[in-house]
Amino acid sequence: MTALNVPPHGGPDLPQERRLVTEIPGPRSREMFARKQAAVPPGVGTTLPVFVTKAGGGVVVDADGNSLIDFGSGIAVTNVGNAAPRVVERVRKQVADFTHTCFMVTPYESYVRVCETLNRITPGDHDKRTFLVNSGAEAVENAVKVARHATGRPAVVVFDHGYHGRTLLTMTLTAKNMPYKHRFGPFAPEVYRAPLAYPFRWPTGRERCAEEAAAQTIDMIDKQVGAENVAAVVIEPIAGEGGFIEPAPGFLPKIAEFCRANGIVFVADEVQTGFARTGHLFACEHEGIVPDIITTAKGIAGGLPLAAVTGRAELLDAVHPGGLGGTYGGNPLACEAALAVFETIEREDLVGRARRIGSIMLPRLRALAERAPAVGDVRGRGAMIAIELVRPGTTEPDPALTAQVAKRCHAEGLLVLTAGTYGNVLRFLPPLVIPDHLLEEGLTILEKAVIEA
Ligand SMILES: Cc1ncc(COP(=O)(O)O)c(CNCCCC(=O)O)c1O
């Protein structure tokens, strides 16, 4: 058990309990949702229309006074907990000193400290550089810019089930059409898609998945693109929005080796997997992958908008002065939050905490799969866990059942998210500071929802 020696997250007055005082969503949330519908386009979706007033540890509290168990972390963002004490403390001081200068105009030390830390803690002991942007998509866009600039090559290779953002290039890199790409084209040129080593769905079975998927990827590159034309391969060490797919063991090393042998920049997109989420500081560490560039965001700053591009110095330094930037990149509040996150991860051993969460969740979900044949696959690492729901006895995705189970969980005060190319994955991303009793209670709610669905 990894002890947590910080005050209860979200402040001392935030009880770590599930408490339902109305139906979910309650009347105040329903009223606010009506206003949201009148003011915000429906294109901005809502997983659970409860309007949050406070959050911390393993709970979110809504406008009706309900306290819900959080298995979402705002989509893998509040790894250190919502309103984490050290984040609050640093941001509170910073906001009273200065809120923005634009680092390209007049710099400030916290930006440099964040970059120094990322250069040190990301995989690999080579000379690195980091620059800061605002979102995961912006980080991925910039990783591709740097790779193209450094190599002088145009092509980018991505994978089935990949997700990289909602900007034009990152939409192009993303696999799933609906809702991310539909009617937003034409898309960016010179992007090529390869098969992902998806063990649960590999046609010839798990054993041959890594070797065959790598061989097909390399063959696609050789025949359709030409390795000498490829600037970068962009891949998530665990596919996030695509359904928490751990590539078959050995696949990532084979792809990384091919990149190395052909002067292709290997970009690890760790926007969702980074910062202790998977039981390593970065998911690349699981198979000893040292990426040429790593993109990070989400868990980096405890909820403040921040993202980073960290990579080999020779690649990033090759860009001409002024070639990288943006108004808000590395905002001082977000940088202070990031420094608080780095400290919290280390001081609270949140890597160990993520492993403990996985050690609690995986056995219970595997036992559930024994009882419920609709649970086709249980997978994930650390506190990035998922179940894939199928028609019993088949691998046929069951998105309707998935939505039904999620709805039941929500009604019982457990905030869960879905994912997957086929919409049939329930994913679990609890804050790494969630107390064990809430984790266990959430699992009980989930098990009941699956069994009774
Ligand atoms: C691996 C990976 N790369 C890039 C991104 C993009 O990060 P941004 O900060 O959302 O731009 C993500 C964001 N994933 C959540 C998207 C939520 C939604 O928009 O519906 C990711 O997971």
Automatic annotation (TrEMBL):
Pfam families, per database record? Aminotran_3
Catalytic reactions on record: 4-aminobutanoate + 2-oxoglutarate = succinate semialdehyde + L-glutamate; (S)-3-amino-2-methylpropanoate + 2-oxoglutarate = 2-methyl-3-oxopropanoate + L-glutamate
Against SUPFAM superfamilies, the record matches this protein to: PLP-dependent transferases
What biological-process terms (Gene Ontology) are attached? gamma-aminobutyric acid metabolic process
Cofactors demanded by this protein? pyridoxal 5'-phosphate
Sorted UniProt keywords: Aminotransferase, Pyridoxal phosphate, Transferase
Q: According to the UniProt record, what class of enzyme is this?
A: transferase
Q: State the EC number(s).
A: 2.6.1.19, 2.6.1.22
Pathway info: Amino-acid degradation; 4-aminobutanoate degradation
Query: What GO molecular function annotations does the UniProt record carry, in alphabetical order?
Result: (S)-3-amino-2-methylpropionate transaminase activity; 4-aminobutyrate:2-oxoglutarate transaminase activity; 5-aminovalerate transaminase activity; identical protein binding; pyridoxal phosphate binding
Family the entry assigns: Belongs to the class-III pyridoxal-phosphate-dependent aminotransferase family.
What is the official name of this protein in its record? 4-aminobutyrate aminotransferase
